[in-house]
Amino acid sequence: MSTHTYEPHQPMVELRNVNKQFGAFHALKDICFQVERGEKVIVCGPSGSGKSTMIRCINRLEKHDGGQILVEGIELNDEVRSLAAVRQEVGMVFQQFNLFPHMTVLENLMLAPMRVRKTSKQEARDVAMQYLRRVRIAEKADRYPAQLSGGQQQRVAIARALCMKPKTLLFDEPTSALDPEMISEVLDVIAELARDGMTMICVTHEMGFARQVADKMVFMDHGEIVEVAPTAEFFAAPSTERAKLFLSQILSH
Amino acid sequence: MFSWFRSLALLLPLSLLLSGCGGTYTWGWYVISPNLEKGRENLLFLVSGLGHTVAVALCAITLSVVVGLLVSLAVLSPNRFLRGFGRAYVEVLRSVPMLVMVLWVYYGLPIVFNLSPSAFTAGVLALALCDSAFQAEIFRAGIQSIDRGQHEAADALGLNYLDKFRYIIMPQAILRVLPPLGNQFVYMLKTSSLLSVIGLTELTRRANELITTEYRPLEVYSFLVLEYLALILLASWLVRRLERRMSARDGARPYSADAVGAAKPA
Amino acid sequence: MTSMQGATAAMTTKRSRPALGWLDWLLLVMVASAASYTVSRVNTVLHYKWDWGVVASYLLKTDPETGHWVPNVLLEGLFTTIRLSVWGILLAALVGLVMGMARCSDRLFPRLVSGAYVLLVRNVPPLVFVFIVVFFVGSQVLPMLGLSSAMDRASPTVQYWVSIFFAPAQQIENFVAGLVCLAFFTGAYVTEIVRAGIQSVPTSQIEAGRSLGLSRLQIMRLIVLPQALRNVLPPLAGQFIQMIKDSSLVSLVSVQELTFVAQEIQVSTQKVFEVLLFAGGLYFIICYSLSLLFAFLEHRS
């Protein structure tokens, strides 16, 4: 914990030569990149490029095999306390929402603040309602997740992550499991959070959305970071052939 | 339910027909005829075993659920020794015949622990021991059937191991475990008949006792079958009703309660 | 993303486990204390003298005439259990297959007969079923068929082979009665498994067969059953292992299999532990090797 210092220019999230293998499959190869405070980073790339694995390593849903991952200067390793500290600071939104089906929307939101942050029930409820209003779904507070549409569930999942007041939010393909007509309601909410200054790392195929919110684009292929570039630059003139090919394929429809 | 009644309606004349083919046997239903004093006495005697049958099954299932849950936690534990112990416990106890277990507990315990359990205690212990291996598998299957995303979401929110189990995994697993648990109870009701061997006066023992005095095995056994049919059909009906009520209450939830319905006494 | 996730799912099925929690320590302590308590009771308090020689002497004996080693009662009991199991599995599979097909029949009568059969057997304790079948088949039907007397009249060669594959002449009636109970008892469960297996094959497969002009029996034999077999193998394995354990029940009607013999030895020698532990161990070996065999079959198909 001695590394936990607040230097003025300390990156929010930093990956140094991160490697990850699944058996013989090399999922991440020497990944290096930084995310500054308040920065919005969009990670894109073809299927199987390691985007999700990378983002899941950042709050240790996957363990990396080599290199270092630092979140606000805290290194992620086997130590339980640093992991707990990191998970309180980093929220995650999943592709499949992963709401708890046996709890109402409100209970889903109140559980972690009460059990992990030890806030009072009243406070947890107030915070929960505040974020539910923010994602425009306050009227569904007492419903069960299965009674909501996919888009509504994902907005609840975003509110659940926000209730822990994280400094960074990770999005793992937040709209991939949604019907097309629900994608925009979720993206609007995320874009709004982005405008409010939340630090974000988002894996997505929605290039229009990326162009709108991202400060920086990260393009991955075969487990490597192929290109990191400011958003405008990336879309105007990608510097690598692979990124060009990817963009032409994904933008052609 | 309705097709059962139709089956029964067919079954009874069929069995009478078959028994007639035996030819040499003359029926003597008078032993359990409700019209005769002696018959009524015998009927009451037969039914008097019901209490022990139900009580032994209830006690045994309670004990085996507790033991089975602990064993399933051992099987899922991060510790290698505990995991090994849990697997060995399940594998060994699953393959020991219930009858051998009953004999072992009843004749073995007095020697090891210098306590002579009553037939009831020994019976509860033996049934619970054998059944706990199946309960452990049921709980393990229930816990493991919870989607990986639920673990991940709980982890990502920073919940610790215990809170994750208490608030996220167990409440969902319990619902999936209930139906096979109910089936297991019905199975216990049936298996408790084995305890007649060590002299527990339950339904089967009563029937055997009556046979030794009345020499009317087929009549008494036929009645015994009816007793068990009634008891077990009633129990499984209750179990299913409970199940339906549970799933009605949780109708809003996106999973079906019989997700691990396949887990059963192998 | 799918291939990536496939790889992820495949590789991480063994979820990374957290460090030991208090629950694990609690369980460890419970296991350790239960084990040490048992050991201390057995060893120090009661000075129980283990005598595994008893088991050995009942396993093998020397033939007084030829001086060769021959199996003694315990080993004979094991063989009887194995014979009961093998024949029982075959017969139960046959009964289950026929009844399972009847259960899926379009006609009412086969459905009712098999339905009644399953209903009766599954809702009656195994032991009661054993008593009934043995009293009915054993004491009424078999004497009528004259099985025992036919065996007495048979030539020594026939008697020899029958005793190898089934049972010695004087025990044949008991053996057959026990076998019938086991087969028909297990058969009811197999019936349900077969029915579930047949119903797991999509109707479109049957329609495809019909459109090719196959007969109903051909559709069953060539299309439905082969596909159903793959689905029923795991539950079938469990059921057959259960049957081997249930075979101990026929000891109560004097079929001289493993449990029967073990109990006789236990009564005559008072060596409860050695004998019953040994018998339990034998059951474990049989059941476990069968489950390994089925795991292998399942893996291959």
SSE inventory with pairings:
The complex is a heterotrimer of chains A (253), B (266) and C (301).
Chain A: E1 13-22, E2 25-35, E3 40-44, H1 51-58, E4 66-71, E5 74-75, H2 80-89, E6 90-93, H3 105-115, H4 121-134, H5 150-163, E7 168-172, H6 180-195, E8 199-203, H7 207-213, E9 216-221, E10 224-230, H8 231-236, H9 241-251
Parallel strand pairs in A: 3-8, 3-9, 6-7, 7-8
Antiparallel strand pairs in A: 1-2, 1-4, 4-5, 9-10
Helix pairs in contact in A: 3-4, 3-5, 4-5, 5-6
Chain B: H1 2-22, H2 37-47, H3 50-75, H4 80-94, H5 98-112, H6 119-144, H7 148-156, H8 161-191, H9 203-214, H10 217-249
Chain C: H1 2-11, H2 22-45, H3 53-59, E1 60-62, E2 69-71, H4 73-103, H5 108-122, H6 126-145, H7 147-153, H8 156-165, H9 172-199, H10 203-211, H11 216-246, H12 258-269, H13 272-300
Antiparallel strand pairs in C: 1-2
Helix pairs in contact in C: 4-5, 4-9, 4-12, 5-9, 6-9, 9-11, 10-11, 11-13, 12-13
Would you write up a description of this structure?
The complex is a heterotrimer of chains A (253), B (266) and C (301). With 253 residues, chain A is of the alpha/beta class. Helix content of chain A is 38%, strand content 24%. Chain A contains nine helices and ten strands. Chain A has helices spanning 51-58, 80-89, 105-115, 121-134, 150-163, 180-195, 207-213, 231-236, 241-251, and strands spanning 13-22, 25-35, 40-44, 66-71, 74-75, 90-93, 168-172, 199-203, 216-221, 224-230. In chain A, the strands form two sheets. In chain A, strands 6-7-8-3-9-10 form a six-stranded mixed β-sheet, sandwiched between helices. Chain A has a four-stranded antiparallel β-sheet with strand order 2-1-4-5, with helices on one face. In chain A, helix 5 packs parallel to helix 6. Chain B has 266 residues and is mainly alpha-helical. Chain B has one domain (37-260): MetI-like (MetI-like fold). Chain B contains ten helices and no strands. In chain B, helix 3 (50-75) runs antiparallel to helix 4 (80-94), helix 3 (50-75) packs antiparallel against helix 8 (161-191) and helix 7 runs antiparallel to helix 8 (161-191). The longest helix of chain B is centred in the last third of the chain and has 33 residues, at 217-249. Chain B is globular, with a radius of gyration of 23 Å. Chain B starts with a helix and ends in a 17-residue tail after the last helix. With 301 residues, chain C is mainly α. Chain C has a single domain (58-300), classed as Orthogonal Bundle (MetI-like fold), CATH 1.10.3720. Chain C has helices at 2-11, 22-45, 53-59, 73-103, 108-122, 126-145, 147-153, 156-165, 172-199, 203-211, 216-246, 258-269, 272-300; strands spanning 60-62, 69-71. In chain C, strands 1-2 form a two-stranded antiparallel sheet. The longest helix of chain C is centred in the N-terminal third of the chain and has 31 residues, at 73-103. The chains are: A alpha/beta (253), B mainly alpha (266), C mainly alpha (301). The interface between B and C is large, with 70 and 67 residues.
